[in-house]
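To: structure subgroup
Subject: Chain for Friday's discussion

All,

I'm putting the inputs and outputs inline so they're searchable in the archive.
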Amino acid sequence: MSEPLSFKQEITAVFGQPVAENPTQVMIEAAFADAGLAWRYLTLEVAPSDLAAAVSGAKAMGFRGFNLTIPHKVEVIQHLDRLSEAAEKMGAVNCVIRDGDELIGENTDGKGFVESLREVSDPQGQNVVILGAGGAARAIAIEMALAGAAKFTIVNRSMERGEQLTALIQAKTGAAVEFVHWTDDYDIPAGTHVVINATSIGLFPDVEARIPLNTDSLTADMVVADVIPNPPATRLVREATAAGCTVLDGLGMLVNQGVIGFRLWTGVEPNPAVMRAALEEVFG
């Protein structure tokens, strides 16, 4: 018997501000089409003062799930029914899944990052420098620690946020961690294996913004990763490539965390190659 004719789409989305530069819709809708699913992914501008209303609206309208980006990853928690173990540890949520009448907070940022890194290097025993102390830094640090990274250096301009993240990593994972207050150009310490930009410096449209980093301290034996997906070739990506580093752009992490979210929402395994190709086409 053929399926009954239906004009109802299942809805997923991203909530953020600003959100116009967020390319997630491109890869998720390509994956929906590839999997034969009549689902939609909406890119929605939501101000912080409207977050509670947006979450209850998504619930009322039967959204199957949604992503959170800057500045909602921590604030959204108070509006959800429960959290996954990883999201609980991080205190940050980037992916919400509907389960019956409940909205469950998960964090796929760090998992997506670790999957990207594993393609070039094993996190076990590595010394990691993380630039920034926001939601992305938090997710990546916790998942890297759970994957066996040995030592973290958190470099951040706000002392309060940097010290909070340092304390969180120690309390939740037991990994060695130190905080460096970021006041001028930062020198990557010798013996560092992985350098991660988890700030928004270089995000479109401010594509030539410079991270206060002494690029002469980057060496060819380091992996340098930038979480920014737009543009994929950030200034840091270009400088680290010139220094001979192994470089991970933000598209790999974006695709990997998108695969995890897609699977959680739909129960279907998406094709990562289709997702990456859709992003590469958009970014030329």
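Points worth raising on Friday:
The longest strand covers residues 10-16.
The first helix runs from residue 24 to 34.

D.
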